[in-house]
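During the second year of the project, the team shifted from modelling isolated chains to modelling whole assemblies. The rationale, set out in the original proposal, was that interfaces cannot be judged from single-chain predictions alone. As a representative example for this report, we include one of the complexes processed in the last quarter. Its constituent sequences, exactly as entered into the pipeline, are reproduced here:
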Amino acid sequence: MIEEIFYIEKSAYRDSFIHRLDARVKIIALFSLIIAMVAVPYSPIVFLVGGCFFIFFAILWGISRLPVVVYLKRLLLILPFGICIILFQIFFVNRYYVTFHAIIDLPFGIHIYAESVEFATILLVKFVVCISAIILLSSTTKLQDMLEGAGRMGLPAEFALTLGMMIRYLFVFGYIYRKVNESLATRCFDPFNPALPYRYRIKQVGYTIGTIFIRSYEQGERVYTSMLCRGYGRDSHIFVTKKPLRQAEWVFLCTSLAFVIAVPTWAWLVR
Amino acid sequence: MHIPDGFLPISQSLVYWIIALVFIALSLRWARREMSDEKVPLVAVLAAGIFAIQTMNMALPIAIVPGGVSGHVVGAALAAIVLGSPFAAVFILTLVLILQGIFFGDGGITAMGANIINMGVLGGFFGFYTYRSLNDLFHNRFCAAFVAGWASLFIPAIVCAVELAVAGTFPLTAGLISMGIYHAIIGIIEGGATAFALSLIFFARPDIVSDGKPTGARKAWDVVIGAGIVIAIGIAIFAPFYASTNPDGLDATFLSLYGAKSTNTPVLDNEKLTAANVAVTEKTGNKVSWQAPFTNYTLPGLDKPGEVLAIVFGVVILFVLGFGVSRFIARKN
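Output from the structure prediction step:
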């Protein structure tokens, strides 16, 4: 996953109206969209709300001028765990429906229920909409901007500093990870090679993990020492300048929030 | 094991977030006190390293599905053991999970509280205390680290299955079996890698490993805490088999008032019980009823094992809450 960071940052360094928006605006708008989507009860209303939210996302993605392939690639990487839970749903009854009608009968007393298929689709819609919002946020906002935005919104200074340090070194460890993998490959070591004894493979992977741990610890020690040399102390924190939102950003923020509140309310009223 | 958004109702997500925040605050306090505050950057860089470690994929020891399935290390046990505190794991895993959730979409925003509890808090605490108690008992660092690594993955997976079942998004039995088996196998990778990584760190940089030897007073407290947990879990396991199935004092009084049960026999008249419930509803005008997640300490579909699990789950929640709240409100000496 760590190698993906370069790919994501590349998308975030492009230029468009969405990219230029202040990180705070995007964080508030997209987090509220996620919270609203999660807060909609498990009922068919989810389809209407999810559909509207997805169209909203698609419009924003279009404005960001990012290729659809970028979205699909990232979506595919995230899907597995959620999809597993969703796929198995169709075989089980759940507490959100009273009666269940089997549409397909399988051997060993397994049935596929119409209501469970509906419930699985509800979960899928919620899942995809929330994931899409996160993909949009991270593909259009640089990590550092996101951190500054969070800092301006009141993220505790010490947490912002720690997170900032971590983000900075994530790229370093992205390269280290790549180098480690290359060096393992040059020694013809493949952790998936069934010809090698399992104990040997796990030992090598364990040692590699230990090495990365030590390297990161030592890197941490060096960073800490060099920061001390530059006057770092107990009260040090990242200095974040004040930055008022532009008029266009206020308009975008208010419109998004109004949309996020209005859609579920409307769907609730017309159900 | 990263629960995505939409799989937990918003109300439950909020509860998990509140519990997680208590532990995040405690881990920040740990960082300030133990890492002497200024060393926080060191942990931050280490968190980036743990993130890289989590990307090291390898094949499962037993192929459940032919090809394609792989596992990786979470690193909670390793971080907690090396830095000598379960709060190290909470601190580091919180940083990692925030980044994974917000930037990579792995694990949800609303579900992040539950993910922090599962992987950071439970992984860190079970990993650390399993390692320390086994190492104290058998003086075998490698085996202790292996079991600690395995437990730090298996127990969160089981809790994750219970959380999804409480949310109503995955049935309990199927969840426990699938998550249990899958993570018991991946746990071998976590355990093996933790043990080998730890032995390498002990060999190459023994100075960075916190010896974790508590002072006399701390050790006594650890024994009290450890014994308490063992007794509580022991009671949880045996209670369902020895507990009386008869109603308690208040229930029995209510039942005998309405003639559903005489005071000296255990026989219950179900018809009169229903009539009693209706009569009470009419009398009080209170029609509000609430279906508890574990009604009568049972889990739907599971007989005695379900009762054991329900009580174990209750014990764990109470321990987490009690420990968390007491640590939070405790005054510094």
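Chain B touches chain A through 75 residues (CB under 8 Å). Residues 17 and 31 of chain B are 20 Å apart (CA to CA).
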